[in-house]
Task: inverse folding
């Protein structure tokens, strides 16, 4: 099942290589979407792909080196837009 997840990571998630690690993991799982820093200190991720791969993505983020920087994650599931061809960092 192809889904979309809109994620908001909070904690000490900026200035620690978070976006680059998110991009690397997403690309390794063939997921599509983007990641960017928000002015309020959170990191926003929009990701589309198979639900199992999105779950694997979230598991890798939380269990990897970045996990110690995450205080909370808000997840909003939805239908994929189909607008993305790859995964990248937005500024």
Result:
């Amino acid at each position: 099942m192809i889904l979309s997840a809109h994620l908001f990571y909070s904690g000490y998630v900026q200035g620690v290589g978070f976006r680059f690690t998110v991009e690397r993991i997403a690309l390794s799982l063939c997921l599509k979407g983007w990641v960017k820093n928000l002015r309020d200190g959170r990191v926003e991720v929009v990701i589309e792909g198979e639900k199992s791969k999105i779950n694997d993505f979230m598991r890798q983020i939380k269990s990897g080196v970045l996990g110690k920087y995450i205080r909370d994650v808000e997840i909003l599931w939805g239908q994929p837009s189909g607008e993305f061809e790859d995964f990248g960092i937005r500024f």
Q: What stands out?
A: The first helix runs from residue 18 to 28. Strands lie at 2-11, 32-37, 43-50, 70-78, 87-89. Residues 46 and 52 are 16 Å apart (CA to CA). Helices lie at 18-28, 51-63.
